[in-house]
Write a structure and sequence with these properties.
Layout (H helix, E strand, L loop, with lengths): L9 H6 L17 E4 L5 E3 L1 H15 L7 E5 L5 H11 L2 E4 L20 E4 L6 H10 L3 E5 L10 E4 L5 H18 L13 H5 L2
Helix pairs in contact: 2-5, 3-5
Amino acid sequence: MAEEELLVPLKEYLRVGIHIGTKFRTKYMAPFIYKVRPDGLSVLNVETINQRLKVASNLISQFNPEEILVICRRENGWKAAEMFSELTGIRVFAGRYPPGILTNPNLDSFIEAKLVLVADPWPDRNVVNDAVKMGIPVIALCDTSNDSINIDLVIPCNNKGKKSLGLIFYILTKAYLKNRKIIKSEKELKYGLEEFTAE
C-alpha cells in the first residue's frame, strides 16, 4: 500500500502495535485477520485498519460535536479519549457509561445522540444495547476477540493497548478537525501524536 494513502506513516501503525490481535479469534473478526503468528497471536490487516479509520473519520465528520457520544470503559484509552474530547468538543465518557442517558428523556443527563463510538463493544455493551434500542448507529473498535453484533462499522484494531488507542484517537481527532475546516494541518493541534500515545 502506498504511504500517501495511509493516515499516518506505516511505521507509526506498527510501532504502536495497532495490528496485533489476541490469541482468541471470533468468526466475526476472521475476515480482518491477515495471519496468525507462531506464538498464536493474530495479526490484523493494516490496510483494512487504515481504510476503516478513513470511513469512520468521514462519517464522524458529518455530525456536530453534540450529536456524537464516545464511550471508553477501557482505562488504557481514557487519557487519549479525554484529549479527543477536549480538542473536538465531542462528549466522552471515560469509564462507566451512565445508564439511561440515551434512552430516558426524563433524565437531566439525557443526550440525543446521532452517532455512538465505543472503544470496545464488550465492556461498552450497555451503551451499544441502548444505541440499538434508539436506532443510533454504532462505530466500534474491535479486537480479534470481539463480536460485531449490533455494530454498524467495525474498526479492526488492538483496542487494549494504550499506544494503539492513543493513535486511533489522534487520527480521529485530526481528521474530524480537518474535515470540518477547524484546522488546516496537524501542526495546529494542541496535542501531537506523542502526547496521545505517551505511556
